[in-house]
Amino acid sequence: MNFNELNLKSKIIKNIKRAGYVSPTPIQAEAIPIVMEGRVVMGLAQTGTGKTAAFALPILDRLLREEGSRARAKGIRALVVAPTRELAEQIHQSFATLGAGTRLRSVSIFGGVGINPQIQALRSADIVVACPGRLLDHVQRRTVDLSKVEVLVLDEADQMFDMGFLPDIRRIIAQLPAAGRQTLLFSATMPGQIRKLADDILTRPVRVKVQRE
Ligand code: AMP
Predict the structure, then answer these.
(1) pLDDT tens for residues 84-135?
(2) What is the mean pLDDT of residues 43-67?
(3) Are 209 and 45 in contact (CB under 8 A)?
(4) Which residues contact 84 (CB under 8 A, 6 or more apart)?
(5) How far is the CA of 198 from the centre of ligand 1 (A)?
(6) d(CA 54, CA 208)
(7) Torsion angle of alpha carbons 59, 105, 154, 5, nearest 10°?
(8) Which long-range contacts (CB under 8 A, 24 or more apart) does 100-106 make?
(9) Beta bridge partners of 108
């Protein structure tokens, strides 16, 4: 399969080539068309499989198409929740690289650093990549508005569970619009608690399973 067959916006294809990606990885080939259809996805995939671009590319494509159909779509429309600051920063960088040259803005939100620059960056963000604790801080301070989120990604859900973040995840989800939201859940393993979470928050998910190459 070729990236050109995925019907992604030409600007995104250009950024994919610039990033040096030649062809989609198995999870990208499988998940991107499904996510582009707006379906709910439960992905069983580890880091290193290309799963970040598997969700970042269709999200960027969707938001770009919306930008085209409105004067200026405003607000946070995509939220990615990840367990660690390293992962959040990495995902944010992927959005920045694959969305370069567009008006879409991504911001990474995690603890251990000053909150004020984050408050500033959140004001013009379209995409937020966040660790649960600091995101809830922003929710409590009312410095983040999650009422416009259309796509939610829970990345490395099993690791978030191991780190005790599941109650935080549920608190975050309670802040999001329920109607019409597209949710994508990725996990390397599927322990009972993650299965339960998936049953609670995913409506008729498409299952995508990819082993590490
Ligand atoms: P991830 O599993 O999302 O952490 O990605 C693992 C690494 O593979 C990252 O360094 C990506 O930049 C890279 N990558 C993702 N997709 C592709 C692709 N289609 N071709 C080559 N490298 C890729």
Answers:
(1) 999 999 999 999 999 999 999 999 999 999 999 999 999 999 999 999 999 9
(2) 95
(3) yes
(4) 110, 131, 159
(5) 25
(6) 11
(7) 20
(8) 100/15, 100/18, 101/11, 101/14, 101/15, 102/11, 102/60, 102/64, 102/67, 103/67, 103/72, 104/60, 104/63, 104/64, 104/67
(9) 129
Give me Rg for the CA atoms of the chain.
16
Q: Does 186 score more than 60 pLDDT?
A: yes
Helix (H, G, I), strand (E, B) or coil at 79: strand
74 confidence band (pLDDT: 50, 70, 90)? confident
CA distance 41 to 204: 9
Residues having CB within 6 Å of any atom of ligand 1: 21, 24-25, 28, 47-53
Whole-number Å distance, alpha carbon 170 to ligand 1 midpoint, is 29
pTM of the model: 0.96
